[in-house]
What does this fold into?
Amino acid sequence: MERLLAIWIEPLALEQPDGSTLRDTLALLDSLSVLCPFTEVVRLGLLVLPLRGPSRFFGGPDAVLRAVRQSVLDVAGVEPLLGVAEGLFCAELAARRGLVVPVGASDAFRRAQPLSVLGRKDLTSTGQRLGLHTLGAFADLETARVAERFNQHALTLHRVARGELSEMEGQRDHRLARRLAQLRGEDDLLEEQRGFFGQRGAGDDRAEAAAHRVRRRLGADAIVVASLCGGRAPEDRATLVPWGSPLVGVRDSAPWPGQLAAPSPATTLAHPVPLQLRDAADRPVVMDARGSLSAEPTAVIFSSPLRREIVWYAGPWPLVERWWSRHRRRAHVQMVLASGEALLVVAESSRWWLVGIYD
Amino acid sequence: MTTSGYSYERMFAFSPPRPSLPPELRATLRPVSLAKSRTLPLSEPWRALVPDAGLRRGSTVVVEAPVGLGGLSLALSLLSEASTQGHWAAVVGVDDPGVVAMAELGVDLRRVLFVPRPRGAWAESASDLLDGVDLLLVRAPSRAAHGAARRLMDRVRERGTVLVALSEPRAPWPLPADLFFRVTQAEWVASSRLDARYLTVRVSGRGEAARGGEHVVVVPNRRGRAEAR
It folds into this structure.
């Protein structure tokens, strides 16, 4: 089970009617994402982040705790309760008490908790009458016995108590991520409103007529419309289809782990352009099977004898996709040239391609 | 030209200048339509940098930037607020639009028409689209011809559309614009990835916009949006 750092902030747990809670949570999430990009808001008042990566980066878990505490103090102005344990269930319990559970002790920690932490009054009172006071005692019951006496819900809690499930049902607020996205303005609410009962404005009709004229002049595929679909790289997420053809209106709402973060290039090449990367000794830079570069790229050469110096680069970020069918391995690299342009290039099938220009 | 050699053009060309209105009368005069309907909305940070906090209908906006230094992002960010408020926009001559970047900038893609490769007919397709959209972003393939640009700007003025022309210092837009954004410097801020780009933009133009000035804006920021520094 993954070792997690849970951050419990009591004042943010109760939502205020003026919306300040959500705004503060969002600000907090943004500032903690700088420390660890995998920070997530589990529900109001509870944030969680994996400890392993950041503690390597900051030099130990204590340093991460310090940095997180400072960050919360700066943004929210309150002292948070921090807890570290394996799995979300234990991490939250640890955070409520402000404990750092040592590595490997999460099991014992969980077993020592009173039955009431499962949050079911019926289960707690029945358990007390049966002489079951701790999660450990409950966990030691045979699954068949639990199934006999309790309902399906208690069976799930039994698995939590045994440590088979790392989080409890209802621990997570699934709507919160969407609400935060809306607050950020990334998700617009107007989506459903347009086209209500097939209504169209006069503007839509005028635009359609104009599109018709262009199509008559230039041909069927000259005028296109765009939509977004799921994907990790910007070149996958854009769909451009000729105007008038049925739209593949798939909303990009699913999470895409490993998606290239904003900002995206303002020019995304539909047909990538081959190019070469060279290191300081003018040897071609290649990416090995493990996704690391043979040397630092210092220059980029386009197919024409056009050479530009690289002043900064980041990556490669490897993507292995569809390993079950059309195996595709790619790695993206962002770079800034001495002339000021920023490019997004990708290594695929042992060649480098220009896929985007941040122009 | 009539038989007597009289020209109507001459008659108008030499008409005496109209007497200017007394200042106290001018102060009471109001435009016929509301300012709101005369302008298309702009998002931050542009609202603070231009007169009327919007794009005046019928005007031409020129965005000039060296290739690859943020001109396209800047021009696209000018479309964002209007498109989210229901105005249609068209993008002509931008070969490979970064659709994801547009969405990040806040452009509503459902109301944008693209003509990526107008194949020499950029002016014609632009003028076809003028009647249908409120905002028209044009990147002329090379140096735009003076005549074509003038005709387009005249039609834009007549139709009440806003033309956003994207140009480079090497191939400038051949006519003066009502509003002129010139990117003079672009600087990337990067951590473990590209974070933000600070654009130094010189704003100038006609009328109130002539005051202009140089501003530093962030296009795009960490979330892909445009913001004031």
Summary: Chain A has twelve helices and twelve strands. Chain A has three domains: 1-188, 205-246, 267-357. Residues 224 and 241 of chain A are 5 Å apart (CA to CA). The domain at 1-188 of chain A is CATH 3.30.70.270 (Alpha-Beta Plaits).
